[in-house]
Amino acid sequence: MLILIVNAGSSSLKLRVLNDEDEVVESADVAATQGGVDRTTIETTIAAWEGIDAVGHRIVHGGTRFVGPVRLNASVRATLETFSDLAPLHQPKSLAALDAVTSLLPEVPAVACFDTAFHATLPPAASTYALPEEWRKRWALRRYGFHGLSHAYIARRASTLLDVETTALRIVSCHLGAGASVAAIERGSSVDTTMGFTPLEGLVMATRSGSLDPGLMLWLEEHAHMPPGALAETLEHRSGLLGLSGTADMAEVLTRMEQGDEAAELAFAVYQHRLRAAIASMVASMGGIDALVFTGGVGEHAPMVREKAACLGFLGIDVDADLNRAAAPDCEIGSSHAKVRTLVIEAREDLQIASEVRQELRGA
Q: Which of 5, 178, 190, 361 could make an S-S bridge to 10, C-beta 3.0–4.6 Å?
């Protein structure tokens, strides 16, 4: 079975074709803008690839209805549209890509795989907001969590690398890219995570603010007369590293830090403060930790980020400086005397999606 993986991210659309051995036999990255995807390029690219037997789409938000992979049809597609305002950076792009691929491969079975599904196991204490019950029930207000496909893969891959059963591990998974989240994975299940009702909550990200005092937003609305649309645009697209330093690129932030740029130094300090606190909170949710994992573009390629984030000796975490600097996924970077294993693992949402597509189609 050749499976086409369609993965729409914040800034790009990744197209991969995997065979039964999970080998990538075709690959292309297509630019994705704030407004959507390049449909012509998608169609031209896929038209050149023959023998595709199934399609797996990464869909960021599945709401409370979709807590596992689902075979796509018109009804499912219509429901997914209703979640677009909860994930405005991703959902519209995912659906635009879905429509483009469906028009080209209308008879090929397609499966939606959800970033929120892995976090459906969050216990009520972690998923419930302290809001009136009528609000929570009427609008399904809860912590959904995101990057679930990445976190789910990390749990499986870490188990293999450590040669320990997933059910015996307590993992803190740090997915650090343009979007960023940390998850507590206990015995293979998500029990806590930093993103919430939308992907805006939690860590400082490339252009997203992460968590804020809601009173600050209310103050801006009342006293600065800031309309909701302007607030949303600023929090999603002009905050985070970009708002703090003038660049959304962590590599550039690090370069500017070396040059003594005070704004870059502040951006990095704020980023790390939030990240370390999140890691510690995930450990608290599980009552301990066996493995700390870094993944995503920043997590895989920024040794300084890993070094500073792992300054958590009181939790038994210690990174070997030489291993960290030379790290190339998939590898271990923890010091030999550390109680907690620390890993760098390549983000492979495509492998998780392929696994879920096979699961869904075999059960059909």
A: 178
